[in-house]
Amino acid sequence: MIKAVLAAGVLVFSICQAITAQSNASYYTASPLYAREQIAQMVQLGEVKNDTLIWENGTTYWGAAETITELQTLFTPAAAGTVTSGVYSRKQSLRRGRTSTYALLKGPFNADALIEMARSGALTEGSLIWIGERRMGRWVPAGTVAELKPLFRDEMPVGTPVKRFQLGVGIEGNDYSRNGIAAGAALSACFSFIPALSAGMRIGYFNDIKGLSTIEAGGLLRGSISFKKCTLFAQGEGGFAMFTENTEENKETANSYFAGGKLGVLIHLNKVKLGPYIGGGFPYLFAGGILLAF
């Protein structure tokens, strides 16, 4: 049984690593647009340095301030007021029919950091987020980033802390018994790597009061959509099961496996969530119960 639990743990760890890799994508946020004169003032005040990340409006490139052509003279005092090859003055910019504006970049941030910024109000639906590589990416509104959409649809209140770890206790009935319905409890522990997806482990014990008991241990993968007052979830699970029959006619222990899925809804009650779920799988065909999550 211990080997079965360890094997399930290795499986869950592998899933977690894959999810973590997906959630480590880097994003950058942009400040309002500034004119060159404003950038020059920031340089004098020490707010912008030669390695500050800056994006020139209308281009697909961003980089250190000293690499932006029209800003290079701000970091070479000896060249101030002169025009050298590849360096444009404001007059030349105007001759080309445009006045450049620039945004200061902050980052890189992963998806979790963006979620915290959005929940604190520091990031709005219209805030620009850079997605992709430096020379191959694009600016998109924060409201179009998948991980942030629920926040801007008011499905989760601003200011809600980011909760990653969740424990659950379920009271469940299923048809593990040969003679009818078995009942018992299950304990689950999940870690959320992105808002809508979490992975963890589940341990359960069930008994039909007629001598047949079941212990199961395995991993689970849960997808969820959270609203202000409830959370909808779908869960897949699998692992190892140990059946013990202890009756006058037979005393036997057998090892097997289980696999199945569950659908449920959790009502938000202050610091806990409570709600029903139903499911099915193998070797049981039906399961239903109440889950308390905190």
Structural features, described:
- Helices cover 18% and strands 45% of the residues.
- With 294 residues, the protein is an alpha+beta fold.
- The longest helix is centred in the first third of the chain and has 22 residues, at 2-23.
- It is rod-shaped and about 95 Å long.
- The relative contact order is 0.12.
- The model is unreliable at 18-23, 79-97 and 155-161 (pLDDT under 50).
Regions with pLDDT < 50 over 5+ consecutive residues?
18-23, 79-97, 155-161
Proportion of residues in β-strands: over 45%
Summarize the amount of helix as a percent range. 10-25%
Give the N-to-C terminal Cα separation: 28 Å
Q: How many helices does DSSP assign? A: 5
Strand arrangement within the widest β-sheet reads 8-9-10-11-12-13-14-15
Shape: rod-shaped
Query: What letter string, H or E per element, gives the SSE order?
Result: HEEHEEHEHEEHEEEEEEEE
Briefly note the structural class of the backbone. alpha+beta
Cα-based radius of gyration, to the nearest Å: 28 Å
State the main characteristics:
single chain; 294 residues; alpha+beta; eight-stranded antiparallel barrel; seven-stranded antiparallel β-sheet; 5 helices; 15 strands
